[in-house]
Amino acid sequence: MTMLEIKDFGKRFTIHHLEKTMPAIEHINFSLEAGEFIGIVGKSGSGKSTILKSIYRSYLPDTGNILYNSARFGQVDLATISEREMLYLRQYEIGYVSQFLNVMPRTTCRQLVINALLEMGESEEVALKESGEALTHFEMDPKLWDSYPNTFSGGEKLRLNIAMATVKNPRLLLLDEPTASLDQQSKVKVREMIEKLKNKGTTLVGIFHDIEFMEGLCDKVYDIQSRLQTVVKETITYES
């Protein structure tokens, strides 16, 4: 079953004070079956994050279609569905991990993960248990669990971001440089969680500058420069 299909996607941005509209990316085409992981590669500024943000509908595409097979709505075009439908998909089906943490102020680390589970309809008892397991997996110091994230380091914020997204076991997970500020041990924990989600059937789209991290993890690679989607048999041999 095709979970996600990007068809002739393009995005432009307008620089109002210069009265110019500039193309950010165009003619993007790739598809992803349920449970697969595709890695998007390309040089900085090539539009990788723009693709992810458009799938999540932070941006609206200017051309093309983003077809997603929803458990609730069936096949929908994420470029044109209603805001209410998109909010539902973000809450229950599509997760997004960025390099930056943007959360409600004066909410503790543990409560943020608990809230993510409560949104899914879990009981407070289950949410408390699973939030602790998630924070432990990502080696968050228990002393930080009841602290506010604005005091955290960049790596701690990123690990919390990943915990909040992955604890919901999303149907589709978008990963925008999820290992950017992590040490090697933390990267291993992220890889373990990705493998766990894949085994549960989550479909993933990820951006990584760390090509070694992707070896043996992705099923497909999409190279923005060549506009080529490659099926990975064993390990990735892409050279940046």
Structure description:
- With 240 residues, this protein is of the alpha/beta class.
- The protein has one domain: Rossmann fold.
- It has 7 helices and 10 strands.
- The protein has a 6-stranded mixed beta sheet, with helices on both faces. Strands 2-1-4-5 form a 4-stranded antiparallel beta sheet, covered by helices on one side.
- The relative contact order is 0.18.
In short:
The chain is 32% helix and 28% strand. The protein is an alpha/beta fold.
Key terms for this structure?
240 residues, Rossmann fold, six-stranded mixed beta sheet, four-stranded antiparallel beta sheet, 32% helix
Distance between the termini: 31 Å
Proportion of strand residues = 25-35%
Poorly predicted ranges: 234-240
CATH architecture classification name: 3-Layer(aba) Sandwich
- CATH fold-level name: Rossmann fold
* Major sheet attributes: 6 strands, mixed
- Compute the average pLDDT: 90
Give the SSE order as H and E letters. Answer: EEEHEEHEHHHEHEHEE
How much helical structure, as a percent, in the residues?
Answer: 25-40%
With helices defined by DSSP (H or I, 4 residues minimum), what is the helix count?
7
Radius of gyration: 18 Å
- CATH class bucket: Alpha Beta
Kindly name the structural category.
alpha/beta
Shape: globular
The CATH homologous superfamily is termed P-loop containing nucleotide triphosphate hydrolases
If strands are numbered along the chain, what order do they take across the biggest sheet? Answer: 6-7-8-3-9-10
Number of beta strands: 10
